[in-house]
Amino acid sequence: MAEKKKAKEFELILKTLPHKPGVYQYYDDKGEIIYVGKAKNLKKRVSSYFSKENQGYGKVFWMVKRIADIRIIVVDTEQDAFLLENNLIKKYLPRYNIQLKDDKTFPWICIKNEPFPRVFPTRNVIKDGSQYFGPYASGKLMHTLLDLIKQLYPLRNCNLNLTEANIRNKKFKVCLEYHLGNCKGPCQEFQTKEEYDQTILQIREIIKGNLNSVAQQLKTMMYAYAEKLEFEKAHIVKEKLDLLEKYQSKSTVVNPNISNIDIFSIISDAQFAYVNFLKVVNGSIIQGHTVEIKKILDETDDELFSLAILNMRERFSSNATEILVPFLPEDKIPGVTFLVPQRGDKKKLLELSERNVKYYQLDKDKQRELVDPERHSKRILATMQSDLRLPHPPVQIECFDNSNIQGDQAVAAMVVFTDAKPDKKEYRHYNIKTVEGPNDFASMEEVIHRRYKRLLDEEKPLPQLIVVDGGKGQLSSAVKSLEELGLRGKISIIGIAKKLEEIYFPGDSIPMYLDKKSETLRIIQQLRDEAHRFGITHHRKKREKETIKSVLTEIPGIGYETAQKLLWKFKSVKSIQKADLQAIAEVIGKARAKVVVEFFKEQK
């Protein structure tokens, strides 16, 4: 009702919205922006918030209740809408938009804008003309890089103002760093500005990840010194070259031909999404970072992925024109090509990113479980509720399976999962009483009726979800029993067909296909397999008992336990018939053995 009233209030606005790409902004009664969204078609997208689908429940329902005004910005293309949405979200931080935040400031490497530039780490980016490289998600990687630079190139680390005039007027003297070999003394003109600037150029290339070009320059220098017979200088350059190659070998090298690409992957559950970013330059991974995104309005993976890619590329100053992804995002970035690799080194890079994001999710889940031990099961139940469109989390799930072999000894099994874990004390077996012959549909109808009539008679709590092992036929039979008991709509029920793992809902002939890797499907498969195992075990025991009763217990003086001993030893009645007196006597004694042997002689 609230949405209908809202739709009536905004009827004029909704009618006049253009069928154009753009950005829409929702305001509350205080005039504050509570949500910013993009659209290919503003009219269709904004109108969808006031449709029947969003009435009465869900996170969108509560946001819509707060909308007091709607404003739009029309743009030329979908890409413009995507970029504008991102800028507005960062500027206004609306309550119902997701925010990509980190609890720390990432470090950068700074090449200072000054004569004889210093190279140092910093967390404060100052717009003074200095060059900043990064940010680095791993401080260890950054310091390893700085250590390499320090070993390769002696640089000054003092903060003296080394202008040409100051140096010419001999205002400075070399310090201890010069005597230790960590600086070449530009303050006293022991090192020229040209030589120092050439060093800075090589350092820039190393920081950018272009180690191959620096290595080539060093090789050229080494050969030049060798040709001039300056072997000591050539040896010093060779040591630098060895150091550079040693550093490069420690990097994650993929393929030297793969240069300047980004890799992104995503994994999500009901509450959070996780996005991993890797940057590759000249075949080496030089950056890696994973962010956690808390869902606010049940955003899709595509929405979260696009936003994360844009924000992380801005944060890490990436200008790569090729991005490897597990699926093509709907939103594009101008001048950038998205690629879903199918094989080769690029496919391996994507798999590496996917492993990283999976490990990050597992690590976060473990941390949360230490704080809240029940969180794991709560998360799975929330995921199942979302995936299966259930009104409540399925705290108790009951799964049914029929077992019969060529129509013989029909039985059924029920297993129970509580908080997504097997609750074995609640498992039940059922012998089919009213059905003759192999009729799975009728057997399912009988078992469901017996189970829930009993729960109603004993006034016991009902499960939130029933899972039926089978397709539309078994599900319809189960639903028929629930209708007879007045429970239709009070308990959610689904069927799972084995062949393609199809999920069926009552009254819907089109099945749902869950992601093969989803936790929801894994739990349903576990329920189905456990019910099948439990039912088959019972069925075998029953058949074995019936076999013992039907043949061996007809022998005068031979009871059930004695017959069971014989079967355990000889495996079948046929083998007992062929056994001699001595072999049978070793199992059940001589007197009973004689009775058994005489019985089978008479039978012949």
Strand and helix map with partners:
Layout (H helix, E strand, L loop, with lengths): L1 H8 L1 H6 L5 E6 L5 E7 L2 H7 L9 H9 L2 E6 L3 H15 L15 E4 L7 E4 L8 E3 L5 H14 L11 H5 L7 H4 L13 H16 L2 H17 L3 H20 L10 E8 L3 E10 L2 E11 L6 H15 L6 E3 L12 E3 L4 H28 L3 H13 L8 E10 L2 E11 L2 E2 L5 E4 L8 H18 L7 E5 L2 H13 L7 E6 L4 E4 L2 E5 L6 H32 L9 H11 L2 H6 L2 H8 L1 H14 L1
Parallel strand pairs: 7-10, 10-11, 12-16, 16-17
Antiparallel strand pairs: 1-2, 1-3, 4-5, 4-6, 7-8, 8-9, 12-13, 13-14, 13-15, 17-18, 18-19
Helix pairs in contact: 10-11, 15-16, 20-21
Which overall shape is indicated by the principal axes computed on the Cα atoms?
flat
Q: What class, by secondary structure content? A: alpha+beta
Kindly estimate the percentage of residues that lie in beta strands according to DSSP. 15-25%
Approximate helicity band: 40-55%
Low-confidence stretches: none
Summed over residues and divided by their number, the pLDDT gives a mean of: 82
In CATH, the homologous superfamily of the largest domain goes by the name: UvrC, RNAse H endonuclease domain
Separation of termini?
A: 83 Å
Count of runs of 4 or more consecutive helical residues: 21
In CATH terms, what is the architecture of the largest domain?
2-Layer Sandwich
- The number of domains is 5
Q: Which fold name corresponds to the CATH topology of the largest domain?
A: Nucleotidyltransferase, domain 5
Please write the CATH class name of the largest domain: Alpha Beta
Radius of gyration: 37 Å
The number of distinct β-strands equals 19
Largest sheet: 8 strands, mixed
